[in-house]
Write a structure and sequence with these properties.
With 200 residues, the protein is an alpha+beta fold. 36% of the residues lie in helices and 13% in strands. The longest helix has 18 residues. The protein is globular, with a radius of gyration of 17 Å.
Length: 200
């Protein structure tokens, strides 16, 4: 197979569920976010809003909310076995030790191709991060069960509500950070056979 640095970056990236307690330099964060803004979008509309959270106190609060949410939705959830349990739901470093960076992507409603452009922005950021030595994890269950319900709730947590501008549609939340050695699934899940069909 022909390969290069970009393809190797795509192949080697995998979700990380445990991070080092190390902040990400603001210039690196800016590079990651800028890569997101250059994603393809229908008609060049760039419908996304990219909300960046790096405040340690607010991230710790988010981590505590996430821990409680996972405990409520995942039978037998054990925060101390985050990586071991990753096959059930999107377990990640919880509580006060949450990842050093959270990015939430939302978009204006009534787009020509709803969600697609903003999801591509998410992918751009995750690959850009990988190229810079920063790991990531898409927080699917947390997006649906924790962040989304807070948006329409009068008593929703203020931090969760601040992650999505009023009127926007939530697309996804991604954690970023320097990976801990034991933060990855080992061995990796093999690629599913038969997923690619070549037509002659």
């Amino acid at each position: 197979m022909t390969t290069n640095e970009t393809i190797e970056c795509l192949i080697n990236r995998q979700s990380c569920r445990k991070y080092l307690a190390k902040s990400i330099d603001p210039e690196i964060v800016e590079a990651i976010v800028t890569a997101g803004t250059y994603a393809p979008s229908a008609g060049g509309g760039q419908p996304w809003t990219i909300t960046v959270l790096s405040n340690k106190e607010k991230l710790a609060h988010f981590g505590e909310l996430m821990t409680a949410d996972l405990a409520a939705h995942v039978p037998g959830f054990q925060p101390g076995k985050i990586v071991d349990n990753h096959g059930t739901r999107g377990h990640i470093l919880c509580g006060a030790d949450f990842a050093p960076l959270l990015i939430v992507v939302s978009e204006a409603p009534h787009q020509r191709t709803p969600i697609i452009s903003s999801a591509l922005a998410c992918e751009n950021m995750m690959i850009a991060a990988q190229s810079l030595g920063i790991a990531s994890c898409w927080l699917g269950a947390v997006t649906a069960n924790l962040i989304a319900p807070a948006q329409g709730a009068a008593d929703g947590d203020p931090l969760l509500k601040s992650l999505v501008p009023e009127g926007n549609v939530l697309v996804g939340a991604i954690a970023f950070g320097y990976p801990a050695p034991d933060g990855f699934r080992k061995p990796r899940v093999p690629r599913r056979q038969g997923a690619v069909v070549y037509l002659n």
